[in-house]
Amino acid sequence: MGRVFGEQVTVASFNTRGVPVVGSGLAGRYAVIGAALEAGDADVACLQEVLSYWHLRLLVRRMPSFRYVSFRPSLAGPAGGLVTLSRLPVAGTAYRGFGIPPRAPRISRLARYRAGIKGALVTRLAQPVVCVVSTHPVANRDGDWSAAGRFYPLHCAHLDVLIQVVRGVPVPTVVCGDFNIDRDSSLFGDFLAGTGLSDAFEGGCPATFRAEYLPAGETPHCIDFILTTGGIKTETAAVLFTDKVPLPGGPGYVSDHLGLRARLFLTPSLPGGTARPRRLIRRNTSSAGTCT
């Protein structure tokens, strides 16, 4: 298929913190993550678990070519731990919090509160006219995604809001992040059905949570995704940060997750949006405008 300037965009998604902060050499791991993304070919990097402004500075310092930094500020750091860095001009940013989910059996008030600070970050690129949605719903510490699982109602509440977000975006959309739901679960299947999204990996991505960080005998699952709306096609898809790397404390993984990368292009017949952006988000800018 013939290409024109602005049709193609490469998106990376990665849960950056992963392993616990204390004793995990976070600064060294973030230095490697930032340097690797800077040396790579991603136009847009959607990062999860960037939980403080210190975390954000560590990454931004290593990624100077990513001139546009999108997030919604909160008291402690980027809202929901979500940050999107882009080499391409950004036309607008919006954040939608998931809200505190309803009460559910065997779910503590604290767990519901933690789930309530999750959300979705929507970043609209100026060219190509594409919205990139990064998200990080509640973690499932039981590894049970069935309807009988105690985290099932929380996942349903978060995914219902995310479906609304995706449906409300009027331009071609890429949705990515650490979803914390298994690819083979009914939760994921129902989410795809409710949004019409397609998996950039076509179901072929390996487990994205490392077995080394699971209790003995448990099976790792694919819980991270890059998904696209109609009119966006995948040229290539690959995993990132697969191996141990040199770190100040010795060789190790930079996260308990693998990263994802997909080179995408818009089909020429799909019209782009022409809505005028309300605000431009630039490097180290902490304001948020609107994406739609």
Brief summary of the model shown:
Helix content is 20%, strand content 24%. It is built from five helices and twelve strands. The chain has helices at 26-39, 53-62, 109-116, 152-167, 186-195, and strands at 8-15, 44-48, 68-70, 83-86, 90-97, 119-125, 131-135, 173-178, 198-199, 224-228, 232-240, 259-266.
Report on the structure:
There is one protein chain. The protein has 292 residues and is an alpha+beta fold. It is built from 5 helices and 12 strands. The protein has helices spanning 26-39, 53-62, 109-116, 152-167, 186-195, and strands spanning 8-15, 44-48, 68-70, 83-86, 90-97, 119-125, 131-135, 173-178, 198-199, 224-228, 232-240, 259-266. The strands form 2 sheets. Strands 3-4-2-1-12-11 form a 6-stranded mixed sheet, with no helix packed on it. Strands 5-6-7-8-10-9 form a 6-stranded mixed sheet, with helices on one face. Helix 1 (26-39) crosses helix 2 (53-62) and helix 4 runs parallel beside helix 5 (186-195). It is globular, with a radius of gyration of 18 Å. The two termini are 29 Å apart. Residues 1-6 and 270-292 have low confidence and may be disordered.
SSE layout:
Blueprint: E1 8-15, H1 26-39, E2 44-48, H2 53-62, E3 68-70, E4 83-86, E5 90-97, H3 109-116, E6 119-125, E7 131-135, H4 152-167, E8 173-178, H5 186-195, E9 198-199, E10 224-228, E11 232-240, E12 259-266
Parallel strand pairs: 1-2, 7-8
Antiparallel strand pairs: 1-12, 2-4, 3-4, 5-6, 6-7, 8-10, 9-10, 11-12
Helix pairs in contact: 1-2, 4-5
